[in-house]
Design a protein that fits this description.
Layout (H helix, E strand, L loop, with lengths): L2 H22 L28 E5 L5 E5 H9 L15 E3 L2 E6 L2 E5 L5 E4 L1 H9 L15 E3 L2 E6 L2 E6 L2 E6 L1
Length: 171
């Protein structure tokens, strides 16, 4: 398993263990009046060095290489069992960033190193408009809900999905 995935796993395990110790330290029952030692709260957010890569599960259980920030974000979104599922192939480099496809969407890595979620009909419209290499460029935020649908903002415009219709608006 790649170093980043091990760090995320260790931090997650540490958080779970810390929560268990905190729960056990609440009273005298079963501890002879001795409380468990306090544990430090650790952040599960890690900073991935620029240019680093990691592997995530892909088609037929094969490992797929993606940028480290993408693997980190994919794990935050629940990994294979989460919002995106398994990777569909390796990341595609585009204009200083990349796009990584998954079973149920994509993570687009901006040149500044931020990974944004794009999915569903907005992803379809984005890819038809050229994706990160097209006029829309890179996402500036994750998709968000709006009255009647979804909206996603990009360097060069906006895609809305309202009442079953995707619409691309360039700046």
């Amino acid at each position: 398993m790649d170093r980043i995935m091990r760090v995320v796993a260790v931090l997650s395990l540490t958080a779970v263990a810390g929560a268990g110790l905190s729960a056990c330290a609440g009273g005298d029952e079963g501890s002879g009046g001795t409380a468990a030692p306090e544990t430090a709260v650790m952040s599960t957010t890690t900073t991935t060095p620029p240019g680093s890569s990691a592997t995530v599960p892909g088609p037929a259980g094969d490992e797929v290489r993606v940028p480290g920030a993408v693997a980190e974000r994919w794990a935050e979104l629940g990994g294979v069992e989460g919002e995106l599922g398994a990777a569909t192939g390796p990341a595609e480099d585009v204009d200083g960033g990349s796009i990584s496809g998954f079973d149920r969407g994509a993570l687009v890595l901006t040149p500044s190193g931020r990974a944004f979620l794009v999915q569903g009909e907005i992803l379809t419209a984005y890819l038809e408009a050229g994706g990160p290499g097209g006029e829309l460029g890179f996402p500036t935020a994750d998709e968000a809900t709006t009255d009647g649908g979804w909206i996603s903002t990009f360097d060069g415009g906006v895609i809305t999905y309202l009442d079953g219709v995707a619409e691309v608006e360039l700046n």
